[in-house]
Sequence to fold (247 residues):
Amino acid sequence: MRAAQKILWNCYFFIAFTLITIIVVIISPFVIPIIMVYTSISIGSAMRRGIRFYGWLLVCKVPFFAPVKVIYQGKKIPKKSIFVANHNSAIDPYLFGAIPVETGFVTSWPFKIPLYKYFMGISGYANAEKGWHEISEKSQKMLNEGCHVIIWPEGHRSRDRQISRFKSGAFRLAFETGTPIVPVCIVGSGDIMAPGERFLSCGKVTLVVLDPVYPEDKTNRRDDVQLLRRHVQTTIEDTLKEYGHFD
Fold:
């Protein structure tokens, strides 16, 4: 991508991003109560739906030359699930706005940003830095409200497109709650804004949503968690290879 094109693209995107963010922040105090009244949902659920719509605008409407594409390789998404995905870029959380379900995050860095921290708290997102009790309690509450929980099992963004060993938290949560895991493969986001980059590049991003994987009810819980973890990581890695992620 030429330098002039990159500068123009970034000017366009960040102006659009700023305007959309300001508008969303201004109208939220008026729109969220209306959603709550007409749908009889909690304030957390209403806020999560609003944030998903915000993400949808940013990844499906603002980049009009290359909106995020979603491929559903699996069956219908369950009514509630735990999304686990590879993590390559700071834009990855916004990408889930392209999937038309209510979602909530187990994350850490947004809680360090003053404006984002406020909305994260209202939405009932789990701050991963507060430990397992926080993750388990907040995730359980979101799942009980019919929300899909998003967890990055690597725990950080990859700097070389390789997949780090998945941590066990998402899979432990699946067994504790009896909730299926839905693997999601993110292809191309590292080309848009890799770790360490301050500017965006034009590119295409694809989300590949795979079959849900259900935790089996067994007695040896620790071994079962590890088996589920390895199975899901292998499935994601194999799918990423199919889509040329490691090229």
